[in-house]
Amino acid sequence: MISSALNLITKIFILLTIFFNYGIFGCTHNGITYHNGDEWLEKNAFVVRCTVNSDKSWRSEVVACVLPDSRRVPILTSLEDGNSVWKCEKNDEDRSVQLRQAPSNNALCNGIRPVGSVWQEKSFELECLPGGYTRLRACVTEEGNRVKINTTSTVNGFDVECIQFYNGTIIFRGAKPAVPRVEPIVFPQPIRSQYGAAGPIITPAVRCTDESGRPRHVGDYWTEKSSFQQNL
Predict the structure, then answer these.
(1) Taking every pair of C-alpha atoms in the chain, what is the biggest distance, in angstroms?
(2) I need a surface site. Which of 14, 61, 158, 166 has the fewest CB within 10 A?
(3) How far apart are CA 75 and CA 17, in angstroms?
(4) Average of pLDDT values for 59-86?
């Protein structure tokens, strides 16, 4: 199965650092007072820690991101998770923190093939992309001829095409082209030319010849046996 590209998942939290001098010896958030070193979960995605300074001022800051399964990713670090990598990033300009999911460059396709590797399965040449996703590069004939994706090539007298649709369906097929050729058609009625010689009228006409050598006229339909089609 050819998979599509991995969608990025991003969660953003604006980091608010608050200083409050005198009176309260802890951080206040949503009506709750937290002491020095206390932590709480914000938006189910960020761990916020309270820090109380020696001058009794305090601040709250994001110290980690939280994955959907509750694992923590410390700020400015990343965590490999199967074919994905989670990154807990901080923007110094707007003081925001974001949890981002991206394809992993260490992922394996089919559990064995590293990113960047190219191999052939049956009649298809495949490549492993970041995140463990497989991309079709070309179709391959029995003789080893490559037909690039979404192109048509002539191989051993056949027009061979390798097509991939948006829904992932792949069609690899070929057919022997019907080649029209010009043949003289002789009409038996005699005429006299300006030189006085009599002879038949010869008029060129276009005909097609099928795979068995039988002539076909313009507008004829017939079925060729020399064709093949392979679907994935």
Answers:
(1) 128
(2) 166
(3) 15
(4) 93
CA pair distance 130, 102, nearest whole angstrom: 9
Global confidence as pTM: 0.53
Q: What pairing do the DSSP bridges indicate for beta strands 72-74 and 77-81? A: unpaired
Using the structure block, give the residue that is written with the tokens 């980091």.
15
Take residue 34 and report the two structure tokens written for it: 């937290």
Burial class of residue 108 (count of CB atoms within 10 Å of its CB; 0-12, 13-18, 19+) = middle
The predicted structure's pLDDT at residue 2? 44
Residue-wise pLDDT for 104-129, tens only, equals: 888 899 889 999 999 999 999 999 99
Q: What is the CA 99 to chain-centroid distance, rounded?
A: 24
**Token digits of residue 209:** 């010849």
Query: Which residues are registered as beta bridge partners of 18?
Result: none
Q: Using CA atoms, how far apart are residues 38 and 50, in angstroms rounded to an integer?
A: 5
CB 14 within 8 A of CB 90: no
Q: Is there a contact between 114 and 128 (Cβ–Cβ < 8 Å)?
A: yes
Angstrom distance (rounded) from CA 47 to CA 193:
103
Distance CA 79, CA 77 (A): 7
Answer yes or no: are the C-beta atoms of 189 and 202 closer than 8 Å: no
